[in-house]
Design a protein that fits this description.
This protein is mainly α. About 70% of the residues lie in helices and about 0% in strands. The structure holds 3-methylbut-3-enyl trihydrogen diphosphate (2 copies) and magnesium ion (3 copies).
Length: about 300
């Protein structure tokens, strides 16, 4: 029998999947290959951690609503696009994602590039469809996603990742790279989920930001650990891809033990940041634990 919390996390996934079904076009007509590739890359078994963080942040405020699923769908589409492009030959050159061929292997490179582009613009379209929010908050949500998915976040982090390949980085440079390429979208998920309720106080948003920054960095550290420790079968992506590509990672620079203790330290920081919240933040606490203890 699944715990109440497991059921809640499952219901977050169901809600965002239903919203993604609504916004991503069915594969038909002259551009059906593009739509097929977008749907292939979104509906193939992602863990939906970022959508869950949106819902959990809204529930911590006590107020998830119909906007939450839309914000969650927006961040998941950005995430799916980032993975399609991350796997391309010009980037990590990976053939396997979520246990199936990557988008450019299943389709072709040009289609994979366009599927990423399409998902990115659909994410912003989704943010124009929020209900009962003052325009100032709606614009803030669009600004946060533009920033944290783009040049002040994920895209910059990916650029540093590529530029750092084969180089020795300091711990600070490594933090910069991980905070941008992965932490930024996690921060966007949490903060946007909370803001879209239109009920969050500044103090709550600040606490949630601290939570997200800690767990966002821990997320990528655990991803680096799993690249070393897990198996291709369990990961659904090629184990050892980082070392094959001579990537600068937490494990290559600090070693497995330090990487593990850093993930634990950040986990603790993330939980500490939630101290102003009661049991309403239990889903966020459960997600933090999942993020650092997951095996895939
Ligand atoms: C993988 O993210 C890419 C990183 C940012 C480390 P996830 O582990 O959330 O991937 P899916 O969506 O569950 O496949
Ligand atoms: C990905 O980091 C970060 C993104 C912005 C997509 P990785 O390159 O380590 O992600 P995986 O291991 O391929 O999922
Ligand atoms: Mg990468
Ligand atoms: Mg990769
Ligand atoms: Mg990785």
């Amino acid at each position: 029998m699944a715990s109440e919390l497991d059921q809640l996390l499952h219901s977050y996934t169901q809600q965002v999947d239903a919203q993604l079904e609504l916004i991503i076009p069915q594969a038909a007509g002259p551009a059906s290959k593009l739509y097929k590739a977008m749907r292939y890359s979104v509906f193939n078994g992602g863990k939906r951690v970022r959508p869950a963080l949106c819902f959990a942040a809204a529930d911590a405020i006590g107020a998830s609503n119909s906007n939450t699923a839309k914000v969650a769908a927006a961040v998941e589409m950005i995430h799916a696009y980032s993975l399609i492009h991350d796997d391309l030959p010009a980037m990590d050159d990976d053939d396997l994602r979520r246990g199936v061929p990557t988008c450019h292997i299943k389709f072709d490179e040009a289609t994979a590039i366009l599927a990423g582009d399409g998902l990115q613009s659909l994410a912003f379209k989704q943010l124009t469809e929020l209900a009962d929010l003052p325009a100032s908050i709606n614009l803030k949500l669009i600004a946060i996603l533009s920033d944290l998915a783009g040049c002040n976040g994920m895209v910059s982090g990916q650029a540093v990742d590529l530029a750092s390949t084969g180089k020795q980085l300091s711990a600070d440079e490594l933090d910069y790279m991980h905070n941008h390429k992965t932490g930024a979208l996690i921060e966007a998920s949490v903060v946007m989920g909370a803001l879209a309720t239109h009920q969050a106080t500044d103090t709550q948003i600040e606490a949630l930001k601290q939570y997200a920054r800690a767990i966002g960095l821990a997320f990528q550290i655990q991803d680096d650990i799993l690249d070393v420790e897990s198996s291709t079968e369990e990961l659904g992506k090629s184990q050892g891809s980082d070392s094959a590509n001579d990537k600068a990672t937490y494990t290559s620079i600090l070693g497995l033990e330090k990487a593990r203790s850093e993930a634990e330290r950040l986990h603790q920081n993330s939980v500490d940041a939630l101290s102003i919240f009661s049991a309403s933040a239990d889903p966020l606490r459960a997600l933090a634990k999942f993020i650092v203890h997951r095996s895939f």
